[in-house]
Amino acid sequence: MRRLLPIVMIIMVTMTTYGQQKSITGFTKESVDTELKLEEKFDSYLKVDNLDQWLKKLTAHPHHISSPYGKTNAEFMRDLFRSWGYEAEIESYKVLFPTPKVRLLEMVGPTKFTAKLSESALKADGTSNQVSEQLPVYNAWSADGDVTADLVFVNYGIPADYEQLERLGIEVKGKIVIAKYGGSWRGIKPKVAQEHGAIGCLIYSDPMEDGYNQGDVYPKGAYRPMDGAQRGSVMDMPIYPGDPLTPGVGATADAKRLDRSEVTNLIKIPVIPISYGDAQPMLSALGGPVSPDNWHGSLPITYHIGPGPAKVHLKLEFDWKMVDCLNVVARLKGAEFPDQWVIRGNHHDGWVNGAGDPTSGLVAELEEARAIGELVKSGWKPKRTIIYCAWDGEEPGLMGSTEWAEHHAQELQQKTVAYINSDGNGRGFLFVQGSHTLETMISEIARDVNDPETGVTALERSKSWSAVNAPTAKAKKEALSKKGMSLWALGSGSDYTAFIDHLGIPSLNMGYGGEGGDGVYHSIYDSYDHYKRFVDPKLEYGMALTKTAGRTTLRLANADVLPFDFKAFQRTVSGYLAEVSGLIDNLRETTEVENQMIKEKRFILAADPTQKSVPPVTKEAVPFISFASLQNAVAMLDKSASNFGDLYAGNPKPNTNLTVLNQLLYQAEQKLLSPSGLPRRPWFKHTIYAPGYYTGYGVKTLPGVREAIEQRNWKEAQEQIEIVAKAIQDYSAQVDAASKILMLK
Predict the structure, then answer these.
(1) For residue 248, what is the domain's CATH number?
(2) How confident is the model at residue 21 (pLDDT cuts 50, 70, 90)?
(3) pLDDT in tens, 170-215
(4) Residues 607-648 pLDDT 10s
(5) What's the mean pLDDT in 564-584?
(6) Domain span including residue 576
(7) In a 10 Å sphere around its CB, with 0-12 CB exposed, 13-18 middle and 19+ buried, how is residue 173 labelled?
(8) Residue 14 falls within a domain, yes or no?
(9) Consecutive H or E run containing 94
């Protein structure tokens, strides 16, 4: 057996140096210089003109899943990867994908109005006139339906809004609701409406969110014009993503499929998105109480709630067909550890032309892969295998990545070091979500990439964003003084979901943004022309993403010992534990105060005394919940992580167990999976991170515990505490096993 490199001092503190040399977690003192020179060479190969050329080509026509141009793009990218030296193929799956046959929305009383349900072509936008190729304005996974009912305005249509409606004595049972985009992921709106008995749902883009309230509308400015509408999926993805007919298994041609009537993650009422131009006549016709101040949008109307007298007729019918889902998968075999994989992905399908979402991130990935191919041609080889993926079917429900991950689940859990995701990209600040064991590595990479506009590092600019958005002066000071970068926790909404939430593979999601106008999301105006005028005109931030994700890929592929910082993870989990234990304390205090106020009849009715109000009812007292097992598990993790960190950063004795050591490190995340999954959604298995049951994309940390408390399910909360405690104990044991290898002579 060939003797591997000895492990020597690897500094864990982000900003320390060897003399004048930067530290890079995971690299020996001798290999740091080699890696830094490699990254400089990588940068020298990058060409911004490639990003521009590919962005224009890939967005020349609509390229949704199953579209002719989507297939053309997949074959083009496969051939590009092959020309760069990769083994590249298209891996195809058969998935369900509904498209509309009938779309009708009309107000039938008190006046007549027929919604346009289409977007106007603009002379200033060269691809907005491709009507025959465009998917129409619709929500994928709406149910078929033909319903007529009074209309009710429900603000964002989230659970808190229905609590407000209940206090006002307004029911939506048997009604059609209209909700604003925002406040939550779109699929939550019909889900909650359905739970409250609504028979249909309209979702409109209020100009307060992304229209003229934010700035000039397209084409004069970046924001959504009057007839711009946001397409999108309303699959109940917090239950499970991917092809709804094949939960948990890859949707191969011969896969066993559910009947559509058996599927649990599809909405059962008709749903359609509309523009604010179509919404205004219907909202203007509503009566009933004036909505609360924080429900008002920016339309020049008084926002009433209803129900009625506006009555609407909604008729939708879909073609529920099976289509091909085309993933491009390119491999570069590792020279030393070919069975340890670093996977990098971005989806290639868009709702229409999709320049911002997803192609701006995709072209950065392509240029990254091309430059790494050039490094190989110059004589370098990665230690670990690098796999580049361009996923199909992300927009309807993360289908390409989910089916691939389910299909190859066992091998992926055995071999995958980490999954690195990007999606849309824009001008502004670096944002990274992910597994907190990778926080130190990301801080070092953000330190080593400069922001193209300001010239400071991406790390310093990110810290400035945190400081500006901090709620207090103390928090602002802490944000500026922080040495590293804080990762945001992963929920859902892009292709990392199956990797971290289902398989327990360490994952990252990264991109730049926060400064470009974001007013054309999922519309025909998300085009090359719009992107180049308003989002990233010089594609400087596309190049910044290439450098950031490229360094992430290279460092994970080349590290002597993988750069996992368990202490950073322990600190994060400790914070989550403090949050959920504080949540129940606050809930107990709030419940006591509210019940006392109700007992004394000191509650607030509707502001309008002529409107019906319903007095609140007392709530069950919050019982004692024991966090002892979870507190003990987190304390055990603290000891294990500290011990590993000391050995990792001290001066470990030379050994020849790097293969085993690294495998223990990257498979530790899998110990955080619950075999039975989360309550009511077993596909989601991660006990630390998950999308919220009622937030969709938004993350819930310690989700089983947190959501049980929020839903006042005390028995389930105690059960979930024990499940999380057991997972963290198993995780600590894995860290201890890695520490034993570091101590071997």
Answers:
(1) 3.50.30.30
(2) low
(3) 999 999 999 999 999 999 999 999 999 999 999 999 999 999 999 9
(4) 455 555 666 777 788 889 999 999 999 999 999 999 999 998
(5) 96
(6) 567-743
(7) exposed
(8) no
(9) strand 87-109
Q: CB atoms < 10 A from the CB of 726, how many?
A: 16
In a shared domain, residues 291 and 237: yes
Q: Same domain for 218 and 85?
A: no
Q: What is the CATH number of the domain that holds 398?
A: 3.40.630.10
Residues 186 and 279 in one domain: yes
d(CA 678, CA 665): 24
Q: Which residues contact 487 (CB under 8 A, 6 or more apart)?
A: 432, 433, 434, 435, 436, 438, 439, 442, 508
Q: DSSP label at 309?
A: S
Q: Rounded distance, CA 305 to CA 571, Å?
A: 45
Residue 464 lies in a domain: no
With contact defined as beta carbons under 8 Å apart, do 45 and 374 qualify? yes
Q: How far is it, in rounded angstroms, from Cα 24 to Cα 38?
A: 13
Q: Are residues 315 and 327 in the same domain?
A: no
Question: Do 420 and 441 form a contact (C-beta atoms < 8 A)?
Answer: no
Verify that 119 and 246 share a domain, yes or no.
Answer: yes
> Of all residues in the chain, what percent carry a pLDDT higher than 90?
85
| Chain segment 688-705, per-residue pLDDT in tens | 999 999 988 889 999 999
- Among 268, 288, 320, identify where a domain stops: 320
> In whole angstroms, what is the distance from residue 14 CA to residue 17 CA?
9
pTM of whole model > 0.90? yes
Asked if residue 491 belongs to a domain, the reply is: no
- The SS3 call for residue 328 is strand
Closest CA relative to residue 344, chosen from 256, 419, 238, 450 = 419
Out of 303, 320, 337, a domain closes at 320
- pLDDT tens-place string over residues 473-529: 888 888 888 889 999 999 999 999 999 999 999 999 999 999 977 799 999 999 999
Per the listing, tokens 């790097």 go with: 658
263 token code pair: 């599927």
Question: Would you give the end-to-end CA distance of the chain in angstroms?
Answer: 17
Contact status, residue 72 vs residue 280, Cβ threshold 8 Å: no
Q: Where are the beta strands (DSSP E) in 129-241?
A: 139-140, 145-153, 176-180, 200-204, 232-233
Residue 404 and residue 439 in one domain? yes
Tokens 């985009």, residue located: 181
- Greatest Cα pair distance, the chain, in angstroms, is 86
Q: CA 411 to CA 662: how far, in whole Å?
A: 16
Strands 507-514 and 428-434: antiparallel
C-alpha to C-alpha distance for 297 and 311, rounded to whole angstroms: 21
Q: Which tokens go with 153?
A: 């305005």
63 with 112, same domain: the answer is no
For residues 663 and 735, state if they share a domain: yes
- For the chain, the 3-state helix, strand and coil shares in percent, each to the nearest 5, are 40, 20, 40
Q: Count how many domains the chain has.
A: 3
Domain membership flag for residue 502: no
User: Domain holding 736: CATH number?
Assistant: 1.20.930.40
Closest to 154 measured CA to CA, from 178, 128, 188: 178
Q: How far apart are CA 95 and CA 139, in angstroms?
A: 17
Contact 335, 172 (CB under 8 A): no
Distance CA 317, CA 320 (A): 9
Amino acid identity, position 625: I
